[in-house]
Amino acid sequence: MRAQALVARNIRRLRVRLGLSQEALAVDAAIDRTYVSRLERGLENPSVLILEKLAGALQVSIPELFVPPVKGEAAPQPLKGGRRPRMR
């Protein structure tokens, strides 16, 4: 698996594991939400600074973003979409 695809898969896997939306991850990492989307789709090559910000927001070390998937591991599923119910 290419490094770019590996990083993309792991960003999404870790974000979903934490239950974070792309927007929440972007805020935590101080980057643009559309950039998070492009990273997860493998359309961008993140710099070391961006990897550092993402790792911090995802509560992992940078090498965790390069861990290959276990053979047969399914791709991370998306979070449930839509708006959350209003609190009354």
Calculate the mean pLDDT score and round it. 89
Which consecutive residue ranges, at least 5 long each, have pLDDT under 50?
A: none
The shape, in one word, is globular
- Helical stretch tally: 4
Question: Could you tell me the number of beta strands?
Answer: 0
Short synopsis of the structure:
This protein is an all-alpha fold. The chain contains 4 helices and no strands. The model has no long low-confidence stretch (mean pLDDT 89).
Description of the molecule:
This protein is mostly helical and 88 residues long. It has a domain at 3-60: 434 Repressor (Amino-terminal Domain) (Orthogonal Bundle), CATH 1.10.260. The chain is 49% helix and 0% strand. The protein is built from four helices and no strands. The protein has helices at residues 3-18, 22-29, 33-40, 48-58. Helix 2 (22-29) crosses helix 3 (33-40) and helix 2 crosses helix 4. It is globular, with a radius of gyration of 13 Å. The N and C termini lie far apart (47 Å). The model has no long low-confidence stretch (mean pLDDT 89).
List the helices and strands and how they pair.
Blueprint: H1 3-18, H2 22-29, H3 33-40, H4 48-58
Helix pairs in contact: 2-3, 2-4
Identify the notable features of this structure and list them briefly.
single chain, 88 residues, mainly alpha, 434 Repressor (Amino-terminal Domain)
